[in-house]
Amino acid sequence: DLLGFVHMIPTRARGRILDIAATQFEDGSAYHQYQPLTKKGNRDVGSGFNDDPLWLIAGTAAYLRETGDWSILDESVAFDNDESKAQPLMEHLRRSFQYTCTHLGPHGLPLIGPSEGPVAESVFIAGMFVKYGKEYADLCGHRGLADEAAAARESIAQVEQAVLTAGWDGEWFRRAYDAFGQPVGS
Prior knowledge:
This protein is 46% helix and 11% strand. It is mainly alpha-helical and 186 residues long. The mean pLDDT is 95.
């Protein structure tokens, strides 16, 4: 929802980004829902949806494009609302990106999440990773992290290639691979 209002009320978007980042887990994963009133992740819905970490990169990149406020990347933000574990927002983005890199399935596509098993992969999450991963790599470049940007681009290229091979059936893009490793949506 942040993407729809960042251009109208960027100060509220900034606050929302920092609040959402504060619900992220240290391994880069995230709750599936955020409660704006309590500023906590919703445990009732849980976590383990592997697209969730990438939305933090998407929202932050949109905010930066709209405002040019690079200081947000230096804001200290808690992990899972524990201030003793606070790190700069840039570290949260790094962990979001790395979470996807370390949660790839047998075809090199991002895993859907634990509820779907250890081999279920998503072409949708792969597309997100390619798009928002490139934005993350650009952020690294802007911050003078050339080696990190290059490594990110290499990871992105590998997932992009997986989309073009395992994600494509010759006529259509698949949606996913199920918990049995079978293609869905050909």
